[in-house]
Amino acid sequence: MGWELWLVISICCGLFLLGSWMVANRATGNGLETQTGWKLILLLAGAALLRIALAATTRGYAADITTFSAWAAHAAEGLTSFYSPGFFADYPPGYIYLLWLVGKLRLVIGLDFDTPSFLVLLKLPAILADCATAWLFFRLSQRFWSGNTSLAVAALYAFNPAVILDSAVWGQVDSVLTLPIMLGVLLLETNPAGAGAAFAVALLIKPQALIFAPLPLLWFGVRLLRRDRQTMAELFLFSGMAIVTFCLGILPFAVNESPGWIISKYGSTLASYPYATLNAYNLFALTGANLAPLGERLLLIPYGVWGNIFIVLIVLYSTAVMLRGRESSRLWYLPLFLSASVFVLAAKMHERYLFPALALALGSHIISRDRWTILLFAGFSTTQFLNAAHVLALSQLGVFGVPRLDPLLLTVSLTNLLLWFLLVRVGYRRYIAPRP
Q: How far is 108 from 161, CA to CA, in rounded Å?
């Protein structure tokens, strides 16, 4: 990455830290407010233009760019035959629809691969998802705060260096996954059918959406235990819409596939990359296990087993939050806890799997107005940026596995662990601890 890119990112980092302080102290909530709508349009346009400029001038993570380019070209040749024998494709159908559109547009416009224009087109779905998520934050913030403060919240996401790096520079699609997860959390309490559709779309995009499965399960399960009269009807709406959406999503691909192919697709994807951690700066990386096989042992227990133990503990803590908590804000805290906890404590994590926690932390802050959550947002944004930027920079030098004792790896891993302890404390204090 050239010095121009680092200059832009450094400026965004400075503005991001300033914005975090302003939102935490509500510094923008005073004074006369005019033309908030135009300010929002200018903010989103600026965020989009910045991303387009970076997308056009940075190649990104070469393996992902090459793979997505090949998938776009292959999908454009025939969407229903995309999962043809011998063709590598470890993504489920959701994002393939967008790559099919990218491939078709490339042919119509006449773009060559590896050109700046094609790079922008390939990264455009994630760029648009970034802007849509920032807009959602503005709308959500308006329920509680002034227009100027809502603009500051939207800017925190729109100009978040970690978000910009992932979509516009790296060229990954975590923003496209995060958007339906955000919608699912937002709609769960008021529109169960919409929430079901949103979570199904997220699952169609990436298997990592399964991380958030405990949220609706616990939400409806606890309400059933408390004999809420509306729960069965809402559960039916949620489940029915989720199943219909998922089935419609896979239907065009199922024509040329055997029964149960989609289960095999998810199973093979989840079974890939059998490492304790794959460049994810977390607890296992802190123990020197980056790229260590799952069977390698820590304190006589294999890393894979440790990961499963931690997942059980994560679900148990999540259950306690849902059972003991009464505030609606726990519906935002819980997916934040699931996202961050699985990244920090589970096995087979990649460097970008913390990404949804950034949006969920900001959403949790808006709903709860707990100042610790804005610290969690700023902290996880910083560690996610450092983790992804480090891996990306090394990849451009031909190094695809971060050394196990790399100082930055160890420092960021420790910071993530400390932030996780703070996250647990916030949840325990607010939702679990006995209160008068």
A: 33
The candidate with the shortest Cα–Cα distance to 130, out of 90, 101, 170, is 170
Least confidently predicted of 1-10, 108-117, 187-196: 1-10
For 103, 119, 206, 268, the CA distances from 112, given in Å and listed in that order, are 11, 10, 28, 32
Both 106 and 212 in one domain: the answer is yes
Q: Which residues contact 344 (CB under 8 A, 6 or more apart)?
A: 282, 283, 416, 417, 420
Does the pLDDT value for residue 1 go beyond 60? no
Do 309 and 385 have their domain in common?
yes
Which position has the token pair 């059972």?
323
d(CA 194, CA 140): 17
In a shared domain, residues 203 and 83: yes
241 and 146 within one domain: no
SS (H, E, C) 218-270: HHHHHHHHCCCCCHHHHHHHHHHHHHHHHHHHHHHHHCCCCCCHHHHHHHHHH
Range of the domain at 105: 69-113+173-257
Structure tokens that stand for 304 in this block? 């894979």
Q: Would you say the pTM of this structure is higher than 0.70?
A: yes
Q: Answer whether residue 408 shows pLDDT above 50.
A: yes
Residue 102 within any structural domain of the chain: yes
Query: What one-character DSSP code corresponds to residue 279?
Result: B
Q: Does 265 map to a domain?
A: no
Rounded CA-CA distance 205/191 in Å is: 21
Whole-number pLDDT of residue 265: 85
- CA proximity to 125, closest of 61, 51, 70, 182: 51
Per DSSP, the residues of 281-330 read: -SHHHHTT-BT-BTT-EETTEEHHHHHHHHHHHHHHHHHHHHHH--STTH
Which of 20-34, 98-112, 334-348 shows the lowest per-residue confidence on average (mean pLDDT)? Answer: 20-34
Task: Strands of 45-187 (E only): list them.
Answer: none
What is the count of structural domains for the chain? 3
Are residues 389 and 326 located together in one domain of the fold? yes
